Structure formats: C-alpha cells, structure tokens
UniProtKB/TrEMBL annotation:
<dbReference type="InterPro" id="IPR002539">
    <property type="entry name" value="MaoC-like_dom"/>
</dbReference>
<dbReference type="GO" id="GO:0005777">
    <property type="term" value="C:peroxisome"/>
</dbReference>
<dbReference type="GO" id="GO:0044594">
    <property type="term" value="F:17-beta-hydroxysteroid dehydrogenase (NAD+) activity"/>
</dbReference>
<feature type="domain" description="MaoC-like">
    <location>
        <begin position="10"/>
        <end position="104"/>
    </location>
</feature>
<dbReference type="GO" id="GO:0006635">
    <property type="term" value="P:fatty acid beta-oxidation"/>
</dbReference>
<dbReference type="Pfam" id="PF01575">
    <property type="entry name" value="MaoC_dehydratas"/>
</dbReference>
<dbReference type="InterPro" id="IPR029069">
    <property type="entry name" value="HotDog_dom_sf"/>
</dbReference>
<dbReference type="GO" id="GO:0003857">
    <property type="term" value="F:(3S)-3-hydroxyacyl-CoA dehydrogenase (NAD+) activity"/>
</dbReference>
<protein>
    <submittedName>
        <fullName>Enoyl-CoA hydratase 2</fullName>
    </submittedName>
</protein>
<dbReference type="GO" id="GO:0004300">
    <property type="term" value="F:enoyl-CoA hydratase activity"/>
</dbReference>
Amino acid sequence: MYAVRSTILEALLYRLSGDYNPLHSDPKLAAVAGFSRPILHGLCTLGFAVRAVIRTICNGDAKLVKAISGRFLLHVYPGETLITEMWLEGSRVLYQTKVKERNRAVLAGFVDLNQLRSSSL
C-alpha cells in the first residue's frame, strides 16, 4: 500500500502544460457539471498510481514498466489523499487507488512489467 496527498499544485501544473479544461480550475463550471469544486485531472490520478507501483514494486526503476492500463471509477478533488493498493501476479501488477477521505475506489487497473530482477521482489 502506498499513500500520497494530492494538491492544487498538480492542477496548476497541468494548466501550465496546456490543459485549459475549466472543469479543473473553475468552481462555477465544476458546479454546473455536478461537482462541489474543481476536480483533479484523471491523468494526474493515474500518474500517482503508476508512480506508487514504480516506487514500491520496481524499486524506482521506471524502465521496468512495459504497459499501463487504468479504468477511472470516480473523480478526485485536489487535496484528497490517494491510497494505492497493489498485487503482483507474475509480471503484472494489479492496482486499485482509493480516496482515503471518502473511502471510495477512484481508479483500478494494471501495470505490465518487463522481467523483474529477483532483488525487486
């Protein structure tokens, strides 16, 4: 299990990178879309989950990642704590990311790995 707290800085970083979707920055538009405030970018949530796999299973070696798959289940608000649980099945890591504050799964998927060295396990 790996936990990390998201911040508003991630939303601002994505905006600087060219994502101008107001759902991630405009409280009025977020309310029209049915959210209580702007939501975190899905790609950011996926990045947190895959980084957890890389740090935990791959000992920080991102070159071990062969493929990434994720299914978005629910939105994340900036400032919420993301907890990623993972299970190794051969060369595939199954993961699920939950929001601690709401105890809800927000993302699930897998990361396929290139051959793991025995020291990675």
